[in-house]
């Protein structure tokens, strides 16, 4: 097993608790599936969201998915002019078998953040 850090991002359709949780759950499910992770493999998750998303903590979505023993932290992104709006990002620290290739996941409008990874998705 090897300690790794995986990145991901997605966008919410609006600033509502439902939209933030839906987008974050989709992101976490996809990240865990592509990387063959179980909750026991996770060490910690750091979530950030753009300043226009303040209706709910993205970490609530992780708790709803059963990540109740994983340390979670939420923070606000720097308010950079022209940045992609309604964006939730995550940095997941996890243990993964050495033979598994790490897969970073960018969904919805957030694919624009990492066009270099699109072929790998």
Structure summary:
The protein is an alpha/beta fold.
Structure description:
The protein is globular. The relative contact order is 0.31. It has a single domain (2-120), classed as 60s Ribosomal Protein L30, Chain: A (2-Layer Sandwich), CATH 3.30.1330. The mean pLDDT is 94. Helix 2 (59-64) links the parallel strand 2 and strand 3. The protein starts with a strand and ends in a 15-residue tail after the last strand. It has helices spanning 17-34, 59-64; strands at residues 2-11, 42-49, 72-76, 87-96, 105-106. It is an alpha/beta fold and 121 residues long. A five-stranded mixed sheet has the order 3-2-4-1-5, with helices on one face. It has two helices and five strands.
Q: Which stretches are poorly predicted, pLDDT < 50 over at least 5 residues?
A: none
Number of strands: 5
For this structure, what is the CATH class?
Alpha Beta
In the CATH hierarchy, what is the superfamily?
RutC-like
According to CATH, what is the topology? 60s Ribosomal Protein L30, Chain: A
Mean pLDDT across all residues, rounded?
Answer: 94
Distance between the termini: 23 Å
Number of helices, where a helix is a run of at least 4 consecutive DSSP H or I residues? 2
Radius of gyration: 14 Å
Instruction: Classify the beta-strand content into a percent band.
Output: 25-35%
Structural class: alpha/beta
Helix content: 10-25%
The largest β sheet comes out as: 5 strands, mixed
